[in-house]
Amino acid sequence: MSKTNLDERKVTAIIALTDGEPVAEASRLANVSRQTIYDWMIDCPQFQRVLNRRLLAITHLKVMLSLPHIETSISTIVEIRDDMNNKPSVRLQASKDLLEITSSLASYSINAELSDLRQQLGGDDAET
Question: What is the pTM of this model?
């Protein structure tokens, strides 16, 4: 979060929130009220952008680190679905699970692309 005009309290709150701290703890660390953090989330576009970018980066990293496990899981589910020796109910459940996983991955991908488009439309926002 370099080159921001955010004051130290906002930066502290963003770091706490993206580290998984609840708003109450983030507000304590930033030495502001919980309501102030909620106000920043609603009324401060720069706070929103930096917080959202940091959350998206963390989510992206988690997905990237999980990809080998996701690929293995998908392969296993496909094998279960395609194995004609399995009960139809098992194969149906495997199909449902596969659909749920691919839907979640597609949703993540779409959200990441929308975020990139928002950044481009918003003028690259070089402050982050």
Answer: 0.57
